[in-house]
Amino acid sequence: MIVHPIPPVFDENSKVLILGSFPSVRSREEGFFYGHPQNRFWKVTSSVFGEDTPSGTEEKKAFLLRNHIALWDVIGSCEINGSSDSSIRNATVNDVSLILNTAKIRSVYLNGRKAYQLYQKFMFPRTGREGICLPSTSPANAAWSTDKLTEAWKIIKIT
Question: For the purposes of burial, counting CB atoms within 10 Å of the CB of 38, is it exposed (0-12), middle (13-18) or buried (19 or more)?
């Protein structure tokens, strides 16, 4: 069983909550979200907001807070082989109530189908808040180019 090692990023001004499934091996090693250089999360989100791609944990946190984004994952602990979402077993979920009770979250977005499925199954019944599934920024989602992802992800700015 692997316990999620990264705390959520949010403050009282966060308006959008983005949830992934569970941190990759690389992200767990680096101690921050979307640490694998081939994951397009930072490139896509910074492009949506017309900013340079942040590098380093502090720059990434500042980017999120400046753009009113809360970031965490659905899963709090699980059994997982490497970084493969399809191998996730015996998952427990994170408690997002602290974020929802602190911030003025208008919309909840899920980074990929697995995160969305887990959210719908475990979190939606508790929160009553609809989640919107966005295409995964993972390199495993090779069918989506960075430009196509950026276009789909623009919805997070409209919120």
Answer: exposed
Residue-wise pLDDT for 130-141, tens only, equals 999 999 999 889
Element (H, E) at 16: strand 16-20
Closest among 86, 100, 108 to 156, alpha carbons compared: 108
Active-site residue list:
39
Residue 89 pairs in a beta bridge with: 79
Of 32, 7, 2, the residue nearest 96 (C-alpha): 7
Q: Which fold has domain 2-158?
A: Uracil-DNA Glycosylase, subunit E (3.40.470)
Tokens of residue 110, six digits? 């899920």
Task: Give the burial class of 3: count Cβ atoms within 10 A of its Cβ; 0-12 exposed, 13-18 middle, 19 or more buried.
Answer: exposed
Edge-first strand order for the sheet with 107-111 is 69-73, 16-20, 107-111, 131-134
The whole-number pLDDT of residue 159 equals: 55
Q: What is the CA radius of gyration of the chain?
A: 14
What are the boundaries of each domain within the chain? 2-158
Please check whether residue 77 is in contact with residue 4, taking contact to mean a CB–CB distance below 8 angstroms. Answer: yes
